[in-house]
Amino acid sequence: MPEPRILILGAGPAGGATAIGLRRLGYDVEVVSDWRRFDAVEGVSQRVLEGLRHAGLGSALALAAVPARRRVHWNGTDQQLNQEYLLDRRLFDSALRDDLRRAGARVIEGRVREVHSDAQGHRVVLDNGQALLADFLVEARGRQAPLGSNRLRGPESVSLLNLWQGEPGEPVSAVESLDDGWAWMARMADGRCYWQVTLDSGATRLPGRAQLPDYCADRRQQSALVGELFGAGAWQAAELHARSSTAILAGDCVGDNWVKVGDAAMAVDPLSGNGIFQSLSSALQAPAVINTVLRHPQRVDLARRFHQERIEQLFLRFARIGRDFYAQEQRGVGQPFWDPRRSWPDDQPIHVPADFGKLQVERRPVIRDGLIDEAEVVVGPDQPLGIWHVQGVEVAPLVHGLQAGQRLETLLAHRPAGEQAMLRAWLTAQGHRA
Ligand code: FAD
After folding, report:
1. Between the chain's N and C termini, which has fewer beta carbons within 10 Å?
2. Residue 141 and residue 359: Cα distance in Å, rounded?
3. Taking the chain, what is the end-to-end CA distance rounded to the nearest angstrom?
4. SS3 for 73?
């Protein structure tokens, strides 16, 4: 088979991680991307930094992530929490392209205007008229990707990002609940200040575009937290960018010659603070999905199921985390912004208590040697996608044996003492009583 031409649309964290994963599998990759249209800073946790390093985006991070003290003003209480990292997206996105070039991907700067696709391949036309041909397409244009059908949407939300130059100082970030929404704010060491308010697009009557900067400045003046962190410099009108922040789950995320990753597949509510994490999660699994579709087309259904199920589960998990955080704000009860968000997407708990009796062994798609394969995994109410390995040990034979009435001691007898202890602890966490 000739080498497939793989084209990735969008060089954000999802497109970047997918490109590097494909390079690691030996594929030639082209990435075409425009630049983000505005300067933004995003808050990420230590876990996201580790995920980005694992994805091969370490040098991008070294330049762009700054630790910051974090305040949370929610449900009438004020907390100083463990620090978060502030990611300067302009720096990060630019360094990410350097990471891509170093990994051997071809990076083309340009804006995609049209995409024509059929079973034979894709023709992508850029704004400058250049046409790119591809056998396989990765859609990673984030929230700007065309919307598919059959998707799940959260309450309609808009976020107004304001930025201005303040005095240099210690990097800080804070989140604050408001009657009709919530605000996230941050200051970088060089004095760049960001304040982003998220509101319900239907319930809030916003003024016209020209009046928005003054409207936002007025709202900042009403916040004691803004005054404390930024001083009177925050009360002037600032540069403003409005964008949708509605949580959206795309319909189909895999076809016979294309796949969606990152926000193009599922964009979560920014309150979860996990957008980059979830975009990475779908991108880290995508190279194995693409490898399978290209090399073993007979397994395309298995690959599709793997990618789709994981995206849907992840989306629902973050939607429920967001719901529970909204629900903590008791003053929101009865308010048009808060009520729909306290109950969306459903009333299912994030975690279901362990119950060994409900575990089942099923054949499910897994990643094996860079491909999607099928294996026996342990499925339970809290692990609907199944667990294959725990610290490198397959757990399905163990659960199978116990369910068939074998003694735990017999099942573990051939294993080293450390592994036995680890597996006993895992079984206890699954609700197994010896
Ligand atoms: P993106 O990062 O959006 O990258 C897409 C790339 O495609 C961009 O480079 C873009 O320029 C390019 N592109 C788009 N259209 C075209 C086109 N037609 N042609 C060529 N290129 C194109 N996440 C966090 O972890 N922490 C936060 O604090 C946080 N805050 C957020 C606040 C708001 C208001 C919003 C909306 C999101 C926030 N997120 C946050 C989420 C985070 O920004 C995204 O989840 C993440 O950037 C998604 O990565 P991606 O690679 O899928 O898409």
Report:
1. N
2. 39
3. 54
4. strand
Asked, for residue 172, whether it belongs to a domain, the answer is: yes
Atom 2 of ligand 1, nearest CA residue: 12
What is the Cα gyration radius of the chain?
Answer: 24
Residues 4-60: tens digit of each pLDDT: 999 999 999 999 999 999 999 999 999 999 998 888 999 998 888 898 898 988 877
Q: What's the pLDDT tens digit per position in 95-111?
A: 999 999 999 999 999 99
Tokens 């969008």: give the residue. 10
What number of residues does the chain have? Answer: 434
Mean local confidence (pLDDT), 100-123: 97
CA of 98 to the centre of ligand 1 (A): 18
Q: Whose CA is nearest to atom 27 of ligand 1?
A: 42
User: For residue 197, what are the domain limits?
Assistant: 157-244
**Residue whose C-alpha is closest to residue 43's, from 223, 262, 276, 236:** 276
Domain boundary (221, 244, 267) is at 244
Structurally, how many domains does the chain consist of? 3
Ligand 1 center–CA 259 separation, angstroms? 17
DSSP-derived secondary structure for 238-273: -EEEEEE---EE-S--B-SSEEE-GGGTEE--GGGS
How far away, in angstroms, is 36 Cα from ligand 1 center? 8
Residues 370-385: pLDDT tens digits? Answer: 999 999 999 999 999 9
